[in-house]
Amino acid sequence: MKDDAQKNGEKVPSKDSPTEDQKHKPWHRHVIALMAAFLGGLIVVFVVVHPTPPVLKDLGLGVGCFLIGLLSLPFEEIFWTRPEKRRAERQREEEQRRHKEEHEKDQGRISCLLDENQKLSQKVSELQVTATRIEDVVVALHVPLVGQGRTYELKSFKEIGVGLDENLDGDSLLKCAQKYPDRAGRLALKLDVENNKWDGVEMLYRCAVRPYWVPSEHLRNFAEFLNRVRQKRELATLFFEWALEAEPLDPGNLSNYGQFLVGDGKPKEGITRLDSAFNISVNIPKDDDKLAELCFALWLALRAWPQDNMSCEKYEKHFKFLIQKEGFTRTYSWNFGGMLARAKEVLPPEDFEYAEALADAFLQEIDARALNESGSRWNARWDRVVAVDPRPQNPTKV
């Protein structure tokens, strides 16, 4: 019945709540007691005033006193029973309030424990990811390319040792690289540019990135090597991210990783990294070649994959200003092969060929002069580009 009444929306009284009859019952009792007392008083007065036999007089006095005594029942209800009920009710309400406060405190503690547990779970997950990455790095650095590890390393160092020092054999060079990892990283970059002894170069890079603390440039250069020479894109991604963790605001790390992401089919993420690198580089009053590289990379990426509130023409103007600037030097070997290969899939043929001409102009001075030659294929389009200095008049210190 109670369940049916609740389903129908009716209010069902609890066991402790008084019913309608119970609410009015005390007043009925009070009225009856008052009437009985009044009647008892009349009887007493009557038997006292009027002459009556002693037996009836005694009986009337007894009945009258009894009826008057009923008047004490409402007084007991008013002055004793009700205060006791009110005190009991206040105690019950106080206990319920205390229980509610304790319940809320328990809920708060449970919520805090759940938050702490969630944070701990997140930290454990992060540590597991970090451990997995470290394990990948360790495995990648200790698995020999072919054959037996040390024999192969000695052979590789002998190859690159020739010409550096006639008296330096492979074993001595290996020990030197392990003892001075920073020098090994710089030598690896130099040999990476100057010759194609890739096996020896990789061994030098491996020596350079083994220590606990590694300069981010060695991590970045090794990532480039893995991507360009070994075609190991997943491992290259790992070292790019490791380099950014070491120096997140290094424009070289941001630039190289951004170009890698664009070439890897992630243009939006790559453009974000390239834009961050550009905003940092414009406040550095040197390295025009690296800034020009950034301008071209941004122009190409935005030309192929337009983004809201970003104009590719802006970077084309900056690029022209920089490569035509007096004293512009091309101090390092570079190519935009990954970006160009990916852009070829979306650009019209004419735009793609123009992009190749700009890339050649960045890499070779003779190709830059060809853009300005009257009658050349791209001269008219190049002339319409207004050169604009990318650097502000008052650069911000970085």
In short:
This protein has 398 residues and is mainly α. The chain has helices at 2-7, 20-49, 54-69, 72-142, 149-161, 170-179, 181-194, 198-208, 216-230, 233-246, 251-263, 267-281, 288-304, 312-323, 337-343, 349-363, 365-372, 379-383.
Protein described:
There is one protein chain. The protein has 398 residues and is mainly alpha-helical. The chain has a domain at 266-398. The protein has helices at 2-7, 20-49, 54-69, 72-142, 149-161, 170-179, 181-194, 198-208, 216-230, 233-246, 251-263, 267-281, 288-304, 312-323, 337-343, 349-363, 365-372, 379-383. The model is unreliable at 4-16, 20-25, 134-155 and 162-168 (pLDDT under 50).
Count of helix runs: 18
State the secondary-structure class.
Answer: mainly alpha
Q: Termini separation (Å)?
A: 79 Å
Q: What is the makeup of the main sheet?
A: none
What letter string, H or E per element, gives the SSE order?
A: HHHHHHHHHHHHHHHHHH
Q: What gyration radius follows from the Cα positions, in whole Å?
A: 47 Å
Task: Assign an overall shape.
Answer: elongated
Extract low-pLDDT stretches. 4-16, 20-25, 134-155, 162-168
The counted number of beta strands is: 0
What percent of the residues sit in helical stretches (DSSP H or I)? over 70%
Proportion of residues in β-strands: under 5%
Report the average pLDDT across residues: 75
